[in-house]
Amino acid sequence: MHGLAGEGRERSLEHRRGKPNGLTGLLLALSAALLAPGLFLPAITIERLWLGTDYSILGSVTALAGDGDWFLAAVMGAFSVALPAVKLVLAAWAWFTGRTDTRPIRVLGAVSKYSMLDVFAIAITVLVLDGRLLTSAQAGPGIVCFTVSVLLSTWAVHRLGHTER
Prior knowledge:
Blueprint: H1 13-17, H2 22-40, E1 42-48, E2 51-56, H3 57-66, H4 70-97, H5 103-111, H6 117-130, E3 135-139, H7 141-162
Antiparallel strand pairs: 1-2, 1-3
């Protein structure tokens, strides 16, 4: 018997509770530990005439909003700050409770790749600015922490949605 009377395997108590998986928990913990430095540490340094300016991901959202670029600030804030944080909270809840067969986990798996928009934007900025006269750009430690955090959480969400059923 798979669960409560009248329930199939998909809705059985054992299936919904799942088995806690230590690797998935470790991935989520590491991702959470790297997200804050990824948002606050310099993600890109732009040098013009030997004067450097550091930009963190969160600082970039604030700067865009301060300059009146509300749309860009909202898009960057949604996909680079809110989405990774919400993904971690929901994934941790699913892992902790064993509710890995929920729709939010499937949706997170589908949209989590958009958290990497910042990484691609910074990579393009570095490539474009690095070739210009008297201007250079370098990726900073913030982008490394952010990238690793997003990749680890994406892996964890994938494991929640597939291997822990």
